[in-house]
Each structure stands twice: as structure tokens, then as C-alpha cells.
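Supplementary Methods, section 5.1.

A reviewer requested that the exact input to the structure prediction be made available. We therefore reproduce it here, unchanged from the version used in the analyses.
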Amino acid sequence: MGVIPRRVRGARASTSHVIGGSGLSVLPAVIAFAVAVLVPAAVIFHQSLQPNPLGDPSAPHDTWGNYHRLLTDPIYRDVLLRTLRVSVVGGIASVVIGLALVIGLTAFRRKEVSSVWLFLLVAPILSGPVITVLGWMGLFVEGGIGYRVVNALRPLWGGTPGRVAETEIAMTIGTVHFVVPFIVLTLYPIARTVSKDLLEASLTLGVPPVRTVFRVVLPLCRPGILAASIVGLAMAMSAFVNARFLGGERNLVLTTLVSQLVNTFNPTLAAASSVLLVGLGLLLVAVYGRVLSRSVRREAAR
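The structure derived from this sequence is encoded cell-by-cell as follows.
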């Protein structure tokens, strides 16, 4: 095997430097993103601006008519508000539960024990959402364990005992169960990097364990908490299987509304619902990220 001349090596190095410096190295990723995301999004957005095929053909075409109907019609407005409730409540509950589980896992001294518990927590991902939802459906039927627990807790927020299956409560619980494993997988590697020496030093100085968690563990895990919160909120908003089987036809959210509109041959309103879902998700993530970043800066300034 011959030795590559120095002049040729220099030419290759300069060529790669020019390509990397000019941004051509990211061109394949940009093309893939455009083909896989931007082009379908543009097609859906263009479809959402077309006339509603089930509307009055003699009426003048309103470009934003589909969006106006989704935001003003009481039925669709209820769907929008239910999507917000399930997403926000489910996302926040998933982050809180996932964070508590991660703190409990990192408290184990033996890595083998925490690994077993971690596997049990992420097992719903391996079984798939359909199997998990079928399990919850069995728990929420009248007389089931989930039915009894929910009805026992309902008086705490002013509710009355009644049906649990195909309700917003069942849909929210199923969403939390689906999202928590992803929160744990996002936070666990970051929490494992927190030095045990810092925790032992805090406890040795007389700081209570709960205060140690808030003053030592959480500040070091803030980037992971932010990432996990965004993941949880996005997954809670885009969940379909839980909403379809645990919410039923009477408790539609935007994901199940899109499916229903497609099945009823209303592609323009379905496209508008899809765009509204994406826009709402981006808005929630932006607002949540801004609020959390402000709290982090405020805490750091103290």
C-alpha cells in the first residue's frame, strides 16, 4: 500500500475544510428534513385552506373558513379545550411522577437493583400502547380496581361517583402511564451523573433529605427536566391510542377528531385540525420553556 503524497493529503484536507466551513456537510440533513417534514406540512396546510366539501357550494369561499369554524363552533371548541386539559395535566403529572421515580432509582446504592426497577418502569414501551390501553380498559369497567379507586377520589375535587371508562379522567390516566416511561428514560442518565459525594456532604451537614433534593439534585438536573417536560407535553398532546380507546367517541381530542373527520370524508377540516394541533403544541412548548427558563434564572440569581 503506497504512501499518500503530502500534497494530495493537503488538498483533501483543504477540500473537507471548505465543505465543512460552507455548510455543505449539513445539506443531506436539510434535504431529508424538507422532504420528510416541510413538504408534507406545506401540502396539509394548503389542503386546510380549500373549501369544505360538506359545506354550502354556493357560499363564497373563505380562505380561513375551516380554522374559523374550529375556533368558533362550540363542539370543536370543546375538543380544543379538552386537548389542552389532557395535555397540560397529563404532561405535568408525568414529569412529577417521572422525577420522583428517577430520584428513587438513583437512591439505590446497588446498580443491579435500580436496573431491575428501571426495566419494570419502561416495560409498557416494550408491550406497546395497545396492550397497555387494553389493561386500563379492564381496570376501568364497572367494579374494576381502577373504577373503585377513581370513584373513591372523585369527592376530593367535587365530583360524583359514576362511569370511569370512556371519560376524560380515564384518558388522562392512560396518557400519564404512557408518557412516564419516556420521562424516566430522559431523566435517569442525567440524574445518575449527580455525584454521591455532594449528596453525602449535604446530609452530613444536617440538611434534610427533602431539602437536599430541592437544593442539590434538582438544580443539577434542570436541563434534563426541561427536555423531559417538553417530551412529556408533546407526547401527551399527540397521543392517539389512549384518547381513542379510553376517551371514546364522546370525549374527542384533536388527534381523534382528525381521524373522525378523515373517516367522514372531510379532508379540509381534518387538515386544519392537524395544523391547529401542531401550532397548539408549539405554542405550549414555547410558553412552558419560557416559564421554566425564567424560573431557572430567578433561582440562579438568588
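DSSP finds 15 helices and no strands in the chain. These observations are discussed further in the main text.
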